[in-house]
Specification:
This protein is of the alpha/beta class. The protein has 3 domains: 93 residues, 2-Layer Sandwich (Alpha-Beta Plaits); 171 residues, 3-Layer(bba) Sandwich (FAD/NAD(P)-binding domain); 118 residues, 3-Layer(bba) Sandwich (FAD/NAD(P)-binding domain), CATH 3.50.50.60. Helix content is 29%, strand content 25%. The protein contains 10 helices and 25 strands. Strands 5, 6, 7, 12, 13, 14 and 15 form a 7-stranded mixed β-sheet that branches. A 5-stranded parallel β-sheet has the order 17-24-18-19-20. Strand 18, helix 8 and strand 19 form a beta-alpha-beta unit. Helix 4 runs parallel beside helix 5 and helix 8 crosses helix 9. The longest helix has 40 residues. The protein binds flavin-adenine dinucleotide.
């Protein structure tokens, strides 16, 4: 009798301790499974570039990775193991891998054999064409820290080759693209005394040039050749550009702008880089083109008029205007935020889906707040039909609507430069 009583006490105490944890665990798991289904139904479960690769055998399901992710919605715990819930939201911070106590996570591209958006490369980022390298976002890794690290790494590899070019017409390396990847590569080429040339269709700075004015850029610790570590974790667009352009001046970087590269061919002992009207020769080429390519057009009447834009550079030049923003990604929301915060603009977002689902956490919070306060209006499940001088026609769930309008900003993504890469002979995972 006494021992039965003892058992009852022990069981009651154990239940009191463990039951709340068990209930919490079950509730969290249910929520994560439902998030996974929702993400799958929206097509947001599959990553578009890097993502957390989880070793299920090692994972102990402690959820440290889930909590560490700055985007917060990428991972969840399902059946006691870390699981990718919203792969599309992974932008490669790598915090999950850093905090995992058992080393069960790596952030990478995983098995790329079915992917037609990831070029095949060896561990030094060399493509199937000898001496033709890819670095930065073009290879599938977003973020400035990855751009700098990869731009530096490929030049280290090229500098380790025993031969140097003796023909003044042939460079040791041509770098295509002057974003953070190309600029880091150029600085490392200077450091390693390589003969080099950078070609860019626009100007030095890459995608950073396209950020809205005063945008806050988050950067993680990484060493820029000939400069050292970036000291802060947040810079304004202007501060960051000042650093890059200061380095360009200081080292008199050999950058030719206005050169859009249209092909690369192999010759005996060198590669020929073709732009619209010139030919350049080098023993090695680094493609640092990024993934943004040319802005995708909607193909609707009126799209070519002067009131239609694909980027916002100066928010302050827009006052008292009726502005329509087309798109539901981070760029669209950041521009909507900037224009709405001016206080005098009437900002509307038209998005073809029924909810925003691929946003960074900060932008998701911003847009929720802006909608709540009435500073931004949204027209979900809508498509632009026609753009006129003072209005825009929309198809909203099959009904035609008209909006009074001064400016249209379109953020429908870009055509990535994969066609160009295939023309050069570069192979992709799915090829
Ligand atoms: C709105 C927005 C916000 C972002 N915020 C952050 C952030 O806060 N923190 C962060 O770390 N990252 C951020 N990123 C991502 C970051 O900007 C990119 O990962 C990074 O710029 C990639 O660098 P890259 O040099 O590989 O490519 P890019 O910066 O895209 O540079 C590519 C260069 O190649 C040139 N080029 C392309 N095709 C050709 C051609 N055929 N011939 C010649 N030149 C060519 C282009 O003109 C461009 O200058 C953000 C991106 C966007 C769009």
């Amino acid at each position: 009798m006494e021992s039965l009583l003892l058992w009852i006490i022990v069981l009651t105490v154990c239940s009191a301790i463990f039951l709340p944890y068990f209930v919490k665990f079950r509730r969290q798991q249910k929520a994560d499974i439902s998030r996974k289904h929702e993400a799958a139904s929206l097509g947001a479960d599959k990553p578009i570039a890097q993502y957390p690769l989880i070793d299920i055998v090692r994972c102990i399901g402690c959820a440290t990775c889930v909590k560490a992710c700055p985007e917060q919605e990428v991972l969840g715990i399902v059946f006691g193991k870390a699981t990718v819930i919203n792969g599309l939201k992974c932008i490669g911070h790598g915090k999950c891998a850093e905090v995992c106590p058992v080393g069960a996570i790596q952030v990478g591209l995983g098995d790329i054999k079915d992917r037609d958006d990831i070029p095949l490369m060896n561990e030094f980022n060399e493509t199937v064409i000898p001496n033709l390298f890819i670095a930065g976002e073009l290879g599938g890794f977003a973020l400035i820290k990855n751009a700098i690290a990869q731009g530096t790494m490929v030049i280290d590899r090229i500098a380790s080759q025993p031969e140097r070019t003796t023909d003044p017409e042939i460079k040791d390396v041509i770098i295509v693209g002057a974003g953070p990847t190309g600029m880091s590569a150029a600085l490392n080429a200077v450091k390693n005394k390589l003969s080099y040339l950078v070609l860019d269709q626009q100007g030095a700075g890459g995608t950073i040039l396209q950020y809205p004015r005063k945008k806050i850029v988050l950067v993680q610790p990484v060493e820029i050749p000939l400069f050292g570590y970036l000291k802060k974790s947040e810079y304004s667009k202007e501060e960051l550009l000042e650093i890059w352009l200061g380095l360009k001046e200081k080292y008199n970087l050999n950058i030719q702008v206005g050169e859009k590269v249209t092909n690369i061919t192999q010759n005996d002992g060198y590669l020929t880089v073709e732009s619209q009207d010139k030919l350049f020769k080098a023993r090695n080429v680094v493609l640092a083109l990024g993934r943004r390519g040319t802005p995708r057009k909607l193909g609707v009447p009126g799209e070519n008029s002067a009131k239609v834009m694909y980027k916002l550079i100066d928010v302050e030049s827009h006052q008292n205007e009726k502005i329509l923003i087309v798109g539901g990604g981070d760029s669209a929301i950041e521009v909507a935020y900037g224009l709405a915060m001016q206080g005098t603009n009437k900002v509307t977002i038209s998005y073809r889906k029924n909810q925003f689902f691929r946003l960074k956490k900060k932008n998701a919070e911003r847009i929720t707040q802006l909608i709540k306060s009435g500073q931004v209006k949204t027209i979900m499940e809508s498509n632009i039909m026609e753009i006129q001088e003072d209005s825009v026609y929309l198809d909203v769930k099959g009904n035609k609507g008209k909006l009074s309008n001064d400016y249209v900003f379109i953020f429908a993504g870009g055509e990535p430069p994969f066609k160009l890469l295939r023309k050069m002979g570069i192979k992709f995972g799915a090829d």
